[in-house]
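Colleagues,

For the teaching module next term, I've prepared a clean inverse folding example: a structure given as tokens, and then the sequence designed for it. I'd like students to try predicting residues themselves before seeing the answer, so please don't circulate the second half yet.
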């Protein structure tokens, strides 16, 4: 028996139930592009990231990695403590310095001879003739120049807060030739330090610093 439809006795050609239609390749490619676009739009990118974080963007964008150096992060509030700088006297001195041992004042500065074994030829200096007359190896007051003065070392014990200290060395005829030390730049006080950091033994002990053997210069 045959069931005929409106085809007037002719049966319709229906596709077999086990046949699968293949989609159009162009339609598949358009659909993939649309899904990829939606996937990129659904991933938010943070605007600010604290260091040392790194932002990784999806592949296919302009840059694959963004570091926090390119972001507007808050500036650091840490800064190293400033180095203390002490006042430096003006040389040549406007007036001859007073001897701190006897109070006498020299008339004028002297000049080191050109044939000097300690490398000080031509330098101006002051000595106390009264003290030197009693003890030939004494009487020294100060150099009258800025050589060896370091504004970061000090201050000395002079009134008014002191000055920056001067680096010097023991002479060739001394008991310890070449040994370096720090001293008052104008000879106005008894400041002396044999430490490389310029601190006195009392200061180093108070600060809990270790022993410093000092240094020697040519």
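(Answer key — instructors only)
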């Amino acid at each position: 028996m045959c069931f005929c439809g409106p085809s007037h006795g002719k049966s319709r050609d229906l596709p077999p139930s086990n046949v699968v239609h293949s989609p159009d390749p162009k339609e598949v490619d358009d659909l993939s592009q649309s899904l990829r676009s939606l996937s990129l739009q659904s991933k938010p990118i943070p605007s600010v990231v604290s260091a040392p974080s790194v932002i990784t963007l999806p592949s296919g964008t302009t840059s694959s990695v963004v570091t926090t150096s390119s972001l507007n992060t808050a500036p650091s509030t840490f800064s190293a403590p400033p180095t203390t700088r002490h006042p430096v006297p003006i040389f040549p001195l406007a007036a001859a310095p007073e001897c701190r041992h006897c109070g006498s004042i020299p008339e004028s500065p002297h000049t080191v001879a050109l044939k000097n074994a300690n490398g000080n030829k031509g330098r101006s200096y002051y000595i106390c003739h009264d003290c030197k007359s009693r003890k030939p190896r004494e009487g020294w007051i100060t150099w009258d120049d800025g050589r060896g003065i370091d504004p970061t070392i000090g201050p000395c014990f002079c009134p008014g807060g002191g000055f920056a200290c001067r680096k010097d060395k023991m002479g060739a005829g001394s008991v310890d030739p070449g040994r370096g030390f720090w001293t008052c730049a104008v000879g106005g006080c008894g400041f002396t330090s044999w430490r490389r950091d310029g601190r006195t033994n009392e200061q180093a002990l108070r600060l809990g610093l270790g022993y410093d053997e000092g240094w020697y210069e040519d």
